[in-house]
Amino acid sequence: METAPNALIVPTVHGTTFMVKMPTYEGRDPCFQEEPWCVHCHSRPASGLLCCSRCRTAWYCNNDCQKSHYKAGHKTICLEVARDLKAVEREAVRLRNFRFQNLFETHVTNFSEVQETKEYMTARWGLMETY
Q1: Residue 76's pLDDT is what?
Q2: Exposed, middle or buried: residue 120 (CB in 10 Å: 0-12, 13-18, 19+)?
Q3: Phi and psi for 5 in degrees, rounded to 5?
Q4: Rounded to two decimals, what is the model's pTM?
Q5: β-pairing, 7-11 with 17-21?
Q6: How many CB atoms lie within 10 A of CB 43?
Q7: What confidence tens digit (pLDDT) does each residue in 14-46 have?
Q8: SS3 for 105?
Q9: How far is CA 36 from CA 9, 29, 110, 130, in A?
Q10: Sign of the alpha-carbon dihedral angle for 125, 53, 48, 26
Q11: Is 57 helix (H, G, I), strand (E, B) or coil?
């Protein structure tokens, strides 16, 4: 099966595979960018990139680029992602401590089918839609 540069081949339980087109992202994560870059000025410094501490989705070469990008529009997505990250983490903490058990560990095979995980799954979906 031929793959696109931003595609992922996913095996199924039935022995077949399917291709998933992966989105492209700004930033430094090596899974998405071969070389890190500043999302504001698009320079590619060898080291020293700064990550947005609120949303953790944007990387900058210096504070000036970070401030300029925030004012130019990053503020909106940043606040939305941060809100959704907090919701996911709040639900994850609840599930890790659910009746003296960690539902992430005890319900691996049927996690999304357990009623107590619905709010967590909804929060994860909201975060995914924000990106």
Answers
A1: 92
A2: buried
A3: -60, -30
A4: 0.63
A5: antiparallel
A6: 12
A7: 666 656 555 554 554 545 556 678 999 988 887
A8: helix
A9: 24, 7, 37, 22
A10: positive
A11: coil
